[in-house]
Amino acid sequence: MAAPLATPMATPLSVVGTTALFFAGALVMRGAGCSINDLWDQNLDKHVTRTRHRPLARGAITPFKALAYTGAQLLTGLGILLQFPTSCLFYGIPSLVLVASYPLAKRVTYYPQFVLGLTFSWGAIMGFPALGVDLLSNSAALSAAALLYASNVSWTVLYDMIYAHMDIKDDAKAGIKSIALKHDADTKKVLSGLAVVQVGLLGAAGMVIGAGPAFYIGSCGGAALTLGWMIKRVNLKSVKDCWWWFVNGCWITGGAISLGLGVDYLLKYAKDDKTDSLEN
């Protein structure tokens, strides 16, 4: 989404390279987030069937070793962040506050998934400065980034609500709060509402940057179809089924969104390249 807004327009090679760095950064920082979560929850995890065999919960490693490992993950994440333009440091470092605070959210609110969404969606903002697009001086880019970020927050809450249903019985006994517990009787209605919000915000982000038909058909249409299919098919009473959709649903919907964005960008790039050739 950010690539066509760059001046000059980002090349396919730079987009692929930046995407690869983002993938590595996301992998490392997600791992760091899980480590921080396990440190906070080592006593709670003992009471949940799915998590009681985690290394800290079962005493396989000490908290000090886990903390050292987390530090190594964070340093690796910083090393990846330093590969981006310097301005990305100012956007990236504040996300650590959210990474550290998510485990606390489940102790005070039934909506920790919202905090998780704020954390996991940070890349939607980072992508713009990573390609040299200044959000503070480009109002269209800022609006698109904000809408894309909000869309991803809604998506994260949606798929993590399905994930939360795996632990709903144990969470109730352990006193762990989650959106699944709060809205157990109306989960599919909530999921449907979140899907509508996600697709609507995604479409609005595309409108701000002048996205083409490929984006609306591929990204927005693809997201609507895959999310609708998942919400209809998922059996919230089956741990196995919830796990399957949690793992695969993200790839299915994410693949549709990425494909639409990718095709839209390539069409714009080809048009821009052709215009440059004619002018020269």
From TrEMBL:
<dbReference type="Pfam" id="PF01040">
    <property type="entry name" value="UbiA"/>
</dbReference>
<keyword id="KW-1133">Transmembrane helix</keyword>
<dbReference type="InterPro" id="IPR030470">
    <property type="entry name" value="UbiA_prenylTrfase_CS"/>
</dbReference>
<keyword id="KW-0472">Membrane</keyword>
<protein>
    <recommendedName>
        <fullName>Diterpenoid pyrone biosynthesis cluster protein C</fullName>
    </recommendedName>
</protein>
<dbReference type="GO" id="GO:0006744">
    <property type="term" value="P:ubiquinone biosynthetic process"/>
</dbReference>
<dbReference type="InterPro" id="IPR000537">
    <property type="entry name" value="UbiA_prenyltransferase"/>
</dbReference>
<keyword id="KW-0812">Transmembrane</keyword>
<dbReference type="GO" id="GO:0008412">
    <property type="term" value="F:4-hydroxybenzoate polyprenyltransferase activity"/>
</dbReference>
<dbReference type="InterPro" id="IPR044878">
    <property type="entry name" value="UbiA_sf"/>
</dbReference>
<dbReference type="GO" id="GO:0005743">
    <property type="term" value="C:mitochondrial inner membrane"/>
</dbReference>
<feature type="transmembrane region" description="Helical">
    <location>
        <begin position="215"/>
        <end position="231"/>
    </location>
</feature>
<feature type="transmembrane region" description="Helical">
    <location>
        <begin position="114"/>
        <end position="133"/>
    </location>
</feature>
<feature type="transmembrane region" description="Helical">
    <location>
        <begin position="190"/>
        <end position="209"/>
    </location>
</feature>
<feature type="transmembrane region" description="Helical">
    <location>
        <begin position="139"/>
        <end position="159"/>
    </location>
</feature>
<keyword id="KW-0808">Transferase</keyword>
<comment type="pathway">
    <text>Secondary metabolite biosynthesis; terpenoid biosynthesis.</text>
</comment>
<keyword id="KW-0325">Glycoprotein</keyword>
<comment type="similarity">
    <text>Belongs to the UbiA prenyltransferase family.</text>
</comment>
<feature type="transmembrane region" description="Helical">
    <location>
        <begin position="80"/>
        <end position="102"/>
    </location>
</feature>
<feature type="transmembrane region" description="Helical">
    <location>
        <begin position="243"/>
        <end position="267"/>
    </location>
</feature>
<dbReference type="InterPro" id="IPR039653">
    <property type="entry name" value="Prenyltransferase"/>
</dbReference>
